[in-house]
Write a structure and sequence with these properties.
Blueprint lengths: L2 E7 L13 E2 L2 E2 H11 L5 E6 L2 H9 L3 E4 L7 H9 L6 E4 L9 H9 L8 E8 L2 H5 L5 E4 L5 E5 L15 E11 H9 L4 H6 L4 H5 L5 E4 L10 H10 L1
Parallel strand pairs: 1-4, 1-6, 4-5, 7-11
Antiparallel strand pairs: 2-3, 6-10, 7-10, 8-9, 8-10
Helix pairs in contact: 3-6
């Protein structure tokens, strides 16, 4: 399989504008993410996809390849689908630009899922343990079946613990995806689905079109930079 990592990098983030260009140690957040992805050694190529000349110039200074995209995409997946349309590739891994601590092992596990022909899309999750995070709508939860295929994603608490004595494991969806190219092209051809529009969770578009995601359990992946407080956490972790 020819494998490419694509990093969607939007400059004007809603919750934390210009977060990818924030300084984290000696490099910007997006530069950390780019170099961490390259260091995994898993990919034939690593590409940053952005609508921003500022981010383009930053990655080119770091020696990376950039593909410019339109600015009006609804999601990172739509952004990389536009860039991937003309590429000769079998599997594309979408590494979020705000994940500067991405590591080899979880991405390797993602790629291994495509040894099974039926898998069209795969993504990562981790166990959520503290009650505040489980209740926090900024943490997207996922429920899976016995084969680790996704059943539903939500910002609400799922499953809801009506039986207080039942043992429940809560999983947080980590926004790192892998796609067969055909599945990625299908995604961008479909209109935004009702559940996706309600929850603002892009992978619900797949579920509403009958495609489950193969979920891969991983250990804690560091910090996603969604807020200034996350940047402070990341600096401590670094």
């Amino acid at each position: 399989m020819k494998k490419i990592a694509m990093i969607p990098a939007r400059y004007a983030a809603t919750r934390f504008p210009a977060k990818l260009m924030q300084q984290l140690g000696t490099k910007t957040v997006i530069a950390h993410t780019y170099h961490a992805t390259v260091r995994t050694g898993l990919f034939d190529e690593v590409v940053v996809v952005t609508d921003s000349d500022i981010i383009r110039e930053e990655i080119e200074r770091e020696g990376g390849r950039v593909i410019m995209s339109k600015g009006e995409h609804e999601s990172g997946t739509d952004r990389i689908a536009e860039a991937a349309a003309g590429l000769d590739v079998d599997v594309i891994v979408n590494v979020q630009g705000d994940t500067p601590f991405v590591a080899r092992e979880p991405l390797e596990k993602l790629l291994q899922q495509f040894e099974e022909p039926s898998v069209q899309v795969a993504s990562l999750m981790q166990v959520l343990q503290d009650e505040a995070s489980i209740a926090d709508p900024n943490f997207v939860k996922v429920c899976v079946d016995k084969a680790w295929n996704s059943l539903f994603f939500s910002r609400s608490v799922i499953p809801y613990p009506r039986n207080k004595e039942a043992a429940i494991t809560y999983y947080e969806h980590i926004g790192v995806y892998a796609f067969r190219k055909s599945a990625l092209m299908d995604f961008t051809a479909w209109p935004m689905s009702p559940l996706e529009a309600a929850e603002k969770i892009e992978c619900l578009r797949y579920l509403e079109n009958g495609i489950t995601l193969r979920m891969v359990l991983t250990d804690y992946m560091g910090v996603e930079i969604d807020t200034p407080e996350d940047l402070e956490k990341a600096a401590k972790l670094l």
